[in-house]
């Protein structure tokens, strides 16, 4: 090994999947039981057991994410019907929690049916209300008898029949409007629909209905675009949250590995991805040496042993090489411990012990780093 080293960090698939499942399920980030089994199977060379464990995590991950998606749809429909002034039954959201994939999948299947019915009813309510306002008719009658212009209680005169027919046709056209269109789009469609009552001939009425159909299609397209943008933004937030969970997992694994080997982590790892984020590893038996470590781009570890004061003799030079060898052995052992936790650190560059003189970093600089760290910790305590 070397006194200066750079290594690429790769997380095992079991770790990545486990972090995703626990994160979206709202639980503390860490390995799932299946993730731990996958890592153990990999260490034992049991490919079949590892594949089965990974498949289990993947199924759980898909099921949890499907539940989250349905919960978002429920919330969107609740907001949509509030804006539209309607009220239809909606399924209750489900916290994924510790439910099995089978339970989550069954809930999603039932919820899909309930959501489809809710969308249909919201669209019909909105359509009937708009058509009723246009033609000054009871909305309930349009909801119950869209295809029956001669329903009981209606006047059988030719003009009234045509009026009811146009109202029913308008309600059908408006029924294609997505339930979650924006208020502006709903008004955009209603403005065109309002002209149908003034149409003198069937040709004029059909021209108005054509315009309404066009606006319904445009409103639905804009709604679909908004849904897609919300989905894209949600994916970006999810990716950022996943990256943060992975970063924290790496920092915890690195911290644990070196602390178990007798090193003190002086400044913590919470700023490892910042431009000036760096940690210092020290040992009680190393009064004149420290290890500076940095993780960049969440995927690269750089570390090197340094002196805290300038060497004064050949004995100091000899001690430098001794400390470099000790550090190299510790780094190799840390790599083994990290691998057991699903963190592979592949060395891409190194400096051999004794190849270069150790750089000198003053204690004052390290003191400033610790002072900044304490200030950050005090800030977090105030926030909590």
Explain the overall architecture.
This protein is of the alpha+beta class. The protein has a domain at 60-238. The chain has ten helices and six strands; from the N terminus they run βααααααααββββαβα. The protein has helices at residues 13-24, 33-43, 47-84, 101-135, 139-144, 158-174, 183-193, 202-260, 314-340, 363-383; strands spanning 4-11, 264-265, 279-282, 289-296, 300-307, 343-351. Strands 2-3-4-5-1-6 form a six-stranded antiparallel sheet. The chain is elongated and about 115 Å long.
Topology, element by element:
Blueprint: E1 4-11, H1 13-24, H2 33-43, H3 47-84, H4 101-135, H5 139-144, H6 158-174, H7 183-193, H8 202-260, E2 264-265, E3 279-282, E4 289-296, E5 300-307, H9 314-340, E6 343-351, H10 363-383
Antiparallel strand pairs: 1-5, 1-6, 2-3, 3-4, 4-5
Helix pairs in contact: 1-2, 1-3, 1-8, 2-3, 3-4, 4-6, 6-8, 7-8, 8-9
Helix content: 55-70%
SSE ordering: EHHHHHHHHEEEEHEH
Ends: how far apart? Answer: 42 Å
What average pLDDT do the residues reach?
84
Low-pLDDT residue spans: 144-156, 268-277, 364-378, 380-384
Nearest-angstrom radius of gyration? 33 Å
**Roughly what fraction of the amino acids lie in strands?**
5-15%
Structural class designation:
alpha+beta
- Outline, from the CA principal axes? elongated
Number of DSSP-assigned strands: 6
Strand order of the largest sheet: 2-3-4-5-1-6
Sheet of most strands: 6 strands, antiparallel
Sum up the structure in keywords:
alpha+beta, 6 strands, 384 residues, disordered C terminus, 10 helices, six-stranded antiparallel sheet
């Amino acid at each position: 090994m070397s006194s200066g080293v750079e290594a690429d960090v790769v997380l095992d698939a079991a770790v990545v999947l486990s972090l995703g499942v626990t994160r979206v399920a709202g639980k503390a980030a860490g390995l799932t039981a299946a993730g731990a089994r996958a890592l153990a199977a990999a260490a034992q060379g049991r490919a079949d057991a590892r594949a089965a464990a990974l498949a289990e995590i993947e199924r759980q991950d898909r099921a949890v994410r499907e539940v989250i998606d349905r919960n978002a749809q429920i919330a969107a429909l609740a907001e949509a019907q509030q804006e539209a002034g309607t009220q239809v039954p909606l399924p209750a959201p489900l916290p994924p929690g510790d439910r099995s994939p089978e339970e989550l999948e069954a809930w999603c299947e039932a919820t899909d049916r309930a959501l489809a019915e809710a969308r249909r009813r919201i669209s019909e309510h909105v359509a009937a209300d708009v058509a009723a306002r246009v033609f000054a008719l009871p909305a309930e009658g349009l909801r119950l008898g869209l295809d029956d212009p001669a329903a009981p209680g209606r006047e059988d005169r030719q003009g009234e029949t045509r009026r009811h027919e146009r109202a029913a046709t308008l309600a059908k056209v408006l029924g294609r409007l997505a339930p979650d269109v924006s208020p502006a789009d709903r008004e955009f469609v209603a403005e065109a629909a309002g002209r149908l009552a003034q149409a003198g001939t069937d040709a004029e009425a059909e021209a108005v209905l054509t315009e309404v159909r066009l606006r319904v299609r445009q409103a639905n397209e804009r709604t679909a675009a908004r849904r897609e943008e919300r989905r894209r933004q949600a994916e970006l937030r999810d990716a950022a949250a996943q990256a943060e969970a992975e970063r924290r997992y790496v920092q915890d694994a690195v911290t644990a590995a070196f602390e178990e080997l007798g090193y003190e982590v002086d400044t913590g790892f919470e700023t490892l991805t910042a431009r000036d984020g760096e940690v210092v590893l020290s040992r009680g038996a190393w009064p004149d040496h420290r290890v500076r470590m940095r993780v960049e781009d969440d995927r690269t570890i750089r570390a090197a042993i340094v002196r805290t004061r300038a060497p004064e003799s050949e004995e100091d030079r000899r001690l430098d090489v001794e400390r470099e060898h000790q550090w190299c052995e510790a780094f190799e052992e840390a790599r083994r411990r990290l691998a057991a936790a699903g963190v592979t650190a592949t060395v891409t560059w190194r400096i051999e012990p004794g190849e270069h003189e150790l750089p000198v970093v003053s204690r004052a600089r390290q003191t400033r780093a610790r002072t900044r760290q304490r200030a950050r910790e005090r800030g977090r305590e105030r926030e909590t």
